[in-house]
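Table S2 (continued). Query chain:
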Amino acid sequence: MVQNSFSRGVRDGIPIALGYISVSFTFGMMAVSQGLPVWFAVAVSMTNLTSAGQFAGLSLIVSGASLLEMALTQLTINLRYALMSLSLTQKLDSSVTLADRFWISFGNTDEIFAVASGQNGPVGKKYFFGLMSTPYCGWALGTLLGAAAGNILPSPVRDALGIAIYGMFLAIIVPAAREKRPVLAVVLIALVLSCAFYWLPVFNRVSSGFVIIICALAAAGLGAWKFPVEEDKAQEQADPASEQEGQG
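Corresponding output:
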């Protein structure tokens, strides 16, 4: 059966929204601390749904980076959304129109994609719009609260809350790096390259946007070259999922 209940989508999006509030709170606070107005921080969050992209973009805006550098950085960071959107098209019900898909692509984040892909059967536009509406409101609300608090909270508290985003990234990276050697290798490669661009002469003149692009592409490329996914293992992982779908 097609999952196409707007209210069900709203309920499924509530846990995502709660998580987004804490992350976007940090973004709003950091934006204001960099001298940007509250309305600008909120506008950024309402027109973008990408935590890593927004934090990277914030540093580029403050440093006066060019539009080309900004575009390339965002392309590198958010390229995964294009792949997830292609996968999601196989999950959407046939009644979803092209115009609906444009709106869905705007609200397609890692968490929303995971919840939508985990539904039994095809997903309709009403469910997806409900699923993306709650996190969207949570992301914008968290940014507003963080930006407003940035003008009220004392400096030590703002500095303490400013490291929240790094804690979130560590919570994502560390468990995967401990379980899988290739992930650990890619993380270490990116770490070494990032340190080189920060400390070594000549290299430390490269702007932050291009540093992100180079580190991401180099680490991912070396990881794919040194630790390719064996086709036999990939097929073994896909077969159980196919068998379960056949049994369902």
